[in-house]
Amino acid sequence: MKKIFIAFALLLAAACTPSWQPEGEERLVVEGWIDAGGFPIVMVTTSVPTSTEYQSIDDQESHLMRHARVTVSDGENSVILTGKYNDAYFPPYIYTTSDLRGVAGKSYSLKVELPSVGLTAIGTTTIPTAVPLDSIWCVPSPDDKGKYNIKASFSDPEASEDYYRLFVKVAGKDSSYVASYMGCMSDSDLPRHAEINVMRGLSVDNESSWAWNPASFEKGDEVMVKFCTMDRVSYEFWNSYELVVSLSTLPMFQATYNPAFNVTGGIGYWCGYGASKYTIRVGE
Q1: Domain extent at residue 160
Q2: What is the pTM of this model?
């Protein structure tokens, strides 16, 4: 979640050459989610148009939108979110509210407006019922001596079509939850009683992100795991994003397409999660 479009932009830059990129227009970029029992969080920026002209990294501040009108509705109540600085996220500015809390089974619509430039983006998501983990544990890593892997198990409900997403936060290393590498799943690809690997995500917080082993954790790490259910549209976004991440880290392949963004009028995502949270101390 955090810094996802910056990481995505870096991946595309590694996979493409400037001569292949047509110059484009600035677009509205939305990153938003609402957990069952939680408040909506939305980040609003504009895209950096591809150009053959030099663009300084110092100019990126101008793409952070602090004066957007962000509205979330559950079909009965409509709330305008308040913008505020929050260093746990990047960009460090979010729109949120304490007047609307996510409820499993409900659908939520999002509308983001930038009247000054005539841009509007909308999206709709549904929060499914959370599926809990049955257990979570550590095992010594077979690849990294002295480090550990985290595994988890859960029982997939038989009567429904379910989609899952893992997010991970390591205390002192990640300021917020990061989308776990290979942590997007459909129950059509899982056994009834599934065992999964819990891995870290790609984050520009970590300067060694390009060289990490996402499955390895240090002994003593306090790892927070958020195991989410989501609707099919949200799954299609995350599944396509993971494909871009996987292909872009391979030098023989090029990621030249966008993920399946689930907002219209812009690019980005608006996802509802049935979330269960866990904390594990690695190696203990």
Answers
A1: 4-281
A2: 0.85
